């Protein structure tokens, strides 16, 4: 079986975190000439014990550790900054091997902790309300870089897997533009030999890339969230350029076809922008759209930032909007903004990466 892996920009050795368990077994057999049980030992050191170097893998004989150092790497991401919000949310900034930076967010909430992961350096989608979209896209993260955000966050909170119970790929970037690495990273998060997370506890969020949504349903059981943010093509195309390529009706049909028996309901995310998409007629149209899909709706009042002139609606208006959906029988929740004071809330990620990483030289937003 050939070893499939993502290529890192500075790669000279195989990063073992870019391998699945089966691929690691093949690597151990072909490159190390060791028995398969060694792969299980290495895998457990990486994920169960969070080893950041081969020296930490003390159950391996010294000769094997030296051999691993010669042909492989497990270079960890460096946490360069930790910002803690008044509400307990923490934003972790990671420095990548090429000098770029990404951010992840730890969100504690009544007996569980959610980790929001990034999948790209910057973002090409150009959503008008999102700070990350102003950074443009530099590159995709590798499988190893996605998983290592979880590994290092786990070390940060003390190493107990139970403390990070949920993962959402809603950070910097459009996950489905990096589908291969995202699916492979999620496979490791759900692998019982690694972290053993339930597919219902791993959610990937997309702006609406229809072909990739259809491909995802064939490749992974992870849960799906979709940033809808409008109820007409005119408004959605204005605030989300992706709608010009995949209009709303095409997106909704793909969501209608998305299989649910083994998954949680699709989460429809709707950022409320005062005077743009928050009218009561919008709420009625959203109720009709949601009624076509096995879903629940998450309303997100806009989180203001310095690169946007949008405003959030008043709490009273949000409640009126929500009540229309509830009265139509749609499970609707209003997301409490977390981490606004550290630029860690929805649509705000990237400030630390822009200030702390190398200058981003990326692509223009996708049409």
In short:
With 367 residues, the chain is an alpha/beta fold. Helix content is 32%, strand content 19%.
What does this structure look like?
With 367 residues, the chain is an alpha/beta fold. The chain is 32% helix and 19% strand. The longest helix is centred in the middle third of the chain and has 14 residues. It is elongated, with a radius of gyration of 21 Å. It starts with 13 loop residues before the first strand and ends in an 11-residue tail after the last helix. The N terminus and C terminus are likely disordered.
Q: Report how far the terminal alpha carbons are from each other.
A: 38 Å
Helix content: 25-40%
Spatial order of the strands forming the largest sheet: 3-4-5-6-9-10-11-12-13-14
Sheet-strand content, in percent, reads 15-25%
- Counted by DSSP, the helix tally is 12
Number of strands: 14
Q: Indicate the structural class.
A: alpha/beta
Give the overall form. Answer: elongated
Largest sheet: 10 strands, mixed
Low-confidence stretches: 1-10, 357-367
Any descriptors?
two-stranded parallel sheet; 367 residues; ten-stranded mixed beta sheet; alpha/beta; 14 strands; disordered N terminus; disordered C terminus
